[in-house]
Write a structure and sequence with these properties.
243 residues, TIM Barrel, eight-stranded parallel β-barrel, 11 helices, globular
Length: 243
C-alpha cells in the first residue's frame, strides 16, 4: 500500500482545509517545493498535489509550483488534481513530468472527458470521487450531486482509469479517523484500485487500511496528520514495508 503525502496549494502556499472549506484553511508552509523535498527525504514514494484555487476557478492557478515540484523530483510519481477541465491542461502537466492527473468535477459533469483522457494518456488518469454520506460532491466540494460514489466509480471501470481517489468530505481535515468501511466497500464493489483519503489521524488508520488492502485499497493520502505530527511518515513507511 502506498503512503501518499498531500500538498494542497492555495495562493502559492501549502495549506490544509477542514471539510473542503476554503475559508477554513491552515497555512503550513510558504515553500511547497521545500515541503515536497521534506517528504521525499522521509521516504515518500508518491506525492499528492491539489491546486485548491484551480478547483474553484476551473483552471490551473498554481501550475508553476506544481511544475517546480516535478522538476525538483523527476523520479517521484506525482498525482495532481484541481482545475483539470481540458485535454490541454492535462497534457501540460504530463509533459511537465506529472505521473497522474486526477479528474473530479468533470468526471461527474462530463464523463466523456475522462474517456478522452484515458485514450490520450493511457494509465495516467485517476478519477477523484469526493463524497458526503455516500453522495458525490463537485466544484471543489461546494456543490452536492444526486449521484452515489459507487455508481460513479462503476462508470469508469472499463475506461482505462488507473485508480479512484475516494475522499470522505465529512472527515477530511478533521482528524477523526479515516472511513475504512466505506472505502473498503467501494473498493470491493469495483475492479479499479482505490486510494483512501480524508480523516487519516494516526497509525491506527494506517494499520486498519493496510489490513483492508485485499479489498482493493492500493494507497492512502495523508495530510493534516503529517503536518501536525500525529503520524511519522518514516515510521508509517517502515510499518508498510514490513507488512
Amino acid at each position: 500500500m502506498n503512503l501518499i503525502p498531500a500538498i494542497d496549494l492555495k495562493q502559492g502556499q501549502c495549506v490544509r482545509l477542514r471539510q473542503g472549506r476554503m475559508e477554513d484553511s491552515t497555512v503550513f508552509s510558504d515553500d511547497p517545493v521545500a515541503m515536497a523535498t521534506k517528504w521525499v527525504s522521509q521516504g515518500c514514494k508518491r506525492l499528492h498535489l491539489v491546486d485548491l484555487d484551480g478547483a474553484f476557478e476551473g483552471e490551473p492557478v498554481n501550475a508553476d509550483i506544481i511544475e517546480a515540484i516535478s522538476a525538483a523530483h523527476p523520479e517521484l510519481p506525482i498525482q495532481i488534481g484541481g482545475g483539470i477541465r481540458t485535454v490541454e491542461t492535462a497534457s501540460a502537466y504530463i509533459e511537465a513530468g506529472v505521473s497522474y492527473v486526477i479528474i473530479g468535477t468533470q468526471a461527474v459533469k462530463n464523463p466523456g472527458f475522462v474517456t478522452e483522457l484515458c485514450l490520450e494518456f493511457p494509465g495516467k488518469v485517476i478519477v477523484g470521487i469526493d463524497a458526503k454520506d455516500g453522495m458525490v460532491a463537485v466544484q471543489g466540494w461546494a456543490e452536492s450531486s444526486d449521484l452515489s460514489a459507487q455508481n460513479l466509480a462503476k462508470k469508469f471501470e472499463d475506461q482505462g482509469v488507473s485508480s479512484i481517489v475516494y475522499t470522505d468530505i465529512s472527515r477530511d481535515g478533521m482528524m477523526q479517523g479515516v472511513n475504512v468501511e466505506a472505502t473498503s466497500q467501494l473498493a470491493s464493489a469495483i475492479n479499479i484500485p482505490v486510494i483512501a483519503s480524508g480523516g487519516v489521524t494516526d497509525m491506527n488508520d494506517i494499520i486498519r487500511l493496510n489490513e483492508a488492502k485485499n479489498s482493493g485499497i492500493e494507497g492512502v493520502i495523508i495530510g493534516r496528520a503529517l503536518y501536525e505530527g500525529t503520524i511519522s511518515l518514516e515510521q508509517a513507511q517502515q510499518y508498510i514495508d514490513q507488512n
